[in-house]
Queue: 2 jobs
Job 1
Amino acid sequence: MNILELRGVSMTYGAVKALQNIDLAVKQGEWLAIMGPSGSGKTTMMNIVGCMDKASDGSVVLDGEELSRLSPKGLTAIRRDKIGLIFQQFHLVPYLTALENVVLAQYYHSMPDEAEALAALGNVGLGERARHLPSQLSGGEQQRVCIARALINCPQLILADEPTGNLDEANEKLVLKILHRLHESGSTIIVVTHSPEVGEHAERVIILEHGKIARTTTGAKLHKSA
Amino acid sequence: MFFRIVKGGMVRQRKKLLLIALTVMLGASLATAMLNVMLDVGDKINRELKTYGANLNVIPRGASFLGDLYGLEGGAGVSDKYLREDELGRLKTIFWAYNIVDFAPYLEAPVKAADKDLAFTVVGTWFAKTLHLPTGESVSTGMRGLKSWWTLEGEWPDDDAGDQAVLGYVLARRLGLKQGDKLRYSGPDGKPAAARVVGVFNSGSSEDDQAFMPLATVQGMTGLGGLVQRVEVSALTTPENELARRAARSPGSLSAKEWETWYCTAYISAIAYQIEEVLTDARAKPILQVAASEGAILGKVELLMALLTVLSMVCSALALSNLVTASVMERSTEIGLLKAIGATDLDVLLLILAETLLTSAVGAAAGYFLGLWFSRIIGAAVFGAAISVSSTAIPLVGALVVFVTALGCLPAIKLLLSLRPTQVLHGR
């Protein structure tokens, strides 16, 4: 069963065609990597799939909802209820503790539950650091807080934009391990990355070039070719 | 969680919020000072203007008719109608009794100087007469308060001493008298009499050629015991408006509601009407140029205060607008993140408004007390008296601060609503 379908999706910024006639289907529980060089349209695709932007043309269906028909308020609701976002820059609220940053996502979703948030931080190995401010955490720890925040509302789709882009090798491994665990538990993951080391962990990899899907491969093949 | 985010945001942006609080504080302090002065200035200006004399002239109804007909102003020979001295205390029992600041009765008598063949007028009056009212209160009234701007060398006569007089400086010069001398004269009945000159005054008007004595003395020499020709009244009034002008022309033309409004407002015409109600056969005539000047000055001062209040709040709104917009711009990533993880525009809007309103409330509270201090300074410097604190100013300042804060937040709100997560999280 497809959780996400893109049919003829295009996106233009003025004269720039960021995406051109993209067709893509993502199955429930699949781990997909979107790769490509800078300016190939990876982030644009993530913004559209993540309900942060609307495609100029085409249809995007997420869990049966046609996104192009939704108002900004409707897109916010989808983003809140069905998507977990992981950012390259972590984007934590600087004056809230790790725990409060996780609770924040619960607050806008439903009801804040500190015990649940604490458990989510425990799952990413940060139970002991829950009361620390982002400035007191390392980059890897901040990214793990970001992952805990993305997972707290049990989203149907996890969207990660360069999740290891700002991390050292040790932390990269830690984050990928968490993503593997999520995948094994049945989560659908879309990772946007330009790193083959990250892409090779995915079941399927699409390579974007000039806003078009240039080719599709698997993580295993990507690993072999590297 | 909401207040945790608000608190966190406020602590993090404390310098900017301090500037917002200071901006609101300055605006609120000026508004408080101006509103307190504006709400109290009527009374203050009225009292200032009252030092320049009466604004109502009460005369017997018949005399008023003759005066209107022939352009004569009371005085012996014009009318044989008089007002009753024993009724004058009733002036302090009318609805606007506390607005009657001072009043003095007058009874004139033509006399001749004994030494020189020189005729002049003696005016009997109260200087500082203590009246015991039916209400049990006592008031002191008379020329001493009513003519406070006259310059007097010496002292005012004692109301109970029959042989004391004050002379206008022109008359004193004509008679060759000074303070301490004896004024010898023959009254209207030709009987010789004498009074000690206890003071010489300069009024700058025709009274400078008259002598003033206690009322009882002049009543005795004229045989008009218990009677007076006219009464000058100084009253604190509200500037006239269309209703007051219509009522002055014909109180009967007002509807019951209009009549009640007019009667219960300190219009000079309403006070005149109430005086006529308590004095037998009296007509109270406003001295219109005085009343009009008071109204005009009061209106202008109130307008000035209102304009200053509006200007101070407009300046606050402009400064606030810049500061809140800068704050939102600085926090655009955070706002974008909140939107990305599911906050609606309204959620974010409430956060920013709560922060700004809380900060403004602190600024407004500080500004209110600073404004009270400003109003004290203005009161002492301009009116030589304390400006009373008006409780009406509190809700007014509160409403102005909320309005100004909301107005100042408008550009920031517009910016905030236009912020999309992609713009700030991915620079798109």
Note: Residues 338 and 348 of chain B are 8 Å apart (CA to CA).
Job 2
Amino acid sequence: MTGPPILAVRELVKNYGPVRAVRGISFDVPRNCCFGLLGPNGAGKTTTVEIIEGVTPATSGQVLYEGEKAGAAFRQDSGVQFQTAALQDFITVRETLEMFHRLYRRRADIDQVIADCALEKLEKRDNRKLSGGQRQRLLLAIALVNDPKILFLDEPTTGMDPQARRNFWELVERIRARSKTIVLTTHYMEEAQALCDEIVIMNEGVIITQGAPDTLLKAHYKEIILELPESDLEELPPEFPFHTYRRNGLVEIHTDDANEAITRLSRAGAPLGRLNIRPFRLEDLFLDLTGKELRS
Amino acid sequence: MIQRILAILHARNLEFLRDKATLGWNVAMPLLLVAGMAAIFSGGDRAAYKVGLVQAEQEINTAAHPFLETRYFDFIAMDQEQAIEQVANHQLDLALNMDSGTYWINPESPGGYFAERMLEASSRESEWLRQPASGDPITYVDWLVPGILGMNIMFSCLFGVGYVVVRYRKNGFLKRLKATPLRPVEFLSAQIISRLMLAIFVTLLLYGATRLLLDIRMEGSGVALFLVAVLASISLVSIGLAMAARVTSEELAGGLLNMVTWPMMLLSGVWFSLAGAPQWVQQLSNIFPLTHALTAAREIMLYGAGLSDVLPQLLLLAGITAVFLTLGAAMFRWRGA
């Protein structure tokens, strides 16, 4: 992640009639990193990424690729995986890839792309007969046919089972290892934390924070979290000095002194067999900053 | 650029050729229609007799002669040369020039025999000079086949392109293509070429089948007819592309395309000649490319016209193509509003 940014977004605005979806945001995407664009539904992240990809026009503002206004060179160098995209019926996986392959001057080895995306056994299958996970892998393969310098992944694992999601993450890691820049839009904070070197969190069309996930967590939280089921702690011990929150059937105790908190709970007779101690995660930061559940 | 056009063209052709139901329908429907129409109409039964009157239409005065008041006779104004040719081809039962007192009759025509008897019954002795006009009959199927070929081209080009583009836009395939280096003109070119190939292939198949099965008349140049089919196809594809340039709803696209195809089918002379129709209907029919395509095709197939004879129609079709292609390309959007 050295040198000038590969992509720069400047004062981007998008209005849909009276609705202001994106409100003058600016950020840089560093080279050779995985860059996460996060936000609740309606935050403006998909609009932002579609403006960058060139499929939605901006009301105002600029997108610069390698210091120049994003145009023909950007289209040659970029790969895009939309969350959902229809493909032609009656066409096989290989034929689909060959069609997209021929649209670019810059081309990857198509057999390598097929191998990378684990599509070898599916290359003669009709697009209509692919499962959700297989289809996502094909959409990723399409995004890779031009050996892109910058790859956009929009909610790439939505609808995948946990195992398929883990496999997908490994694949993204392998792509990133080839000095590619990845822009990832996701609802899954676990995914962002696992893959992203840098993130932007958007809410209501503006950026509310930006930075490396670990840096952001360290900057926002000095404490850790103790979690107990609500049924195990219906009432807090008297004069309990720590911040507590009740969320999703759990009592969360935020503390910088876990020993003291556990001692007080134990003295009050709270059962601690199901006590969970964990650090703050990106999901906690997201919730604190936006006040919104992730998948509302 | 060529590489990208070929990529989209190849994929579109594969998609169409593997869709057996659609392919079958595109080929079988017009063949069935021709067979059905031939079975129904080739017997030559007609409800009325047709007489060509050599004079301007607005001057036809039915009180001028008792023959002109005969019921179940259509009197159609036309010039003498055209009238004689149509009598020779059995398209008219009789041609009559009242100024010179001459009528033309095809001695081989059953309709001509009865029309002549009626003329004699309503005239004084030796009032008319009889002139024979001989030639092979043009049957209804001969006349109909160019109409069926044209109608097939019309449906194939308008719906085949318009619907597909709207479906691609609605399901997001066009949005995906927009994120590639593909330009609108390249995408549209591929669609035009793909549909042109299909339309011409089916037209050739249909033409061959009707020649073989129904022995239809072909007096003129095959090259000229091929050129008419190509220009008719491109002009209709360009109309389909212009109509589908921004629409995202298949229902709306269907409505718009029907709004064009139905008047075109009824008023372009697919099924019946508009020769006896009111002047305003004939003028209205000139706005449709199919009218010019059918006029040219019939001139070639039935009367042996050459390329230079149908040049006005070809130029008109080229003009319509230029206008709608420009319009379609200018209005084209990868995504809906």
Note: Chain A has two domains: 7-218, 222-279.
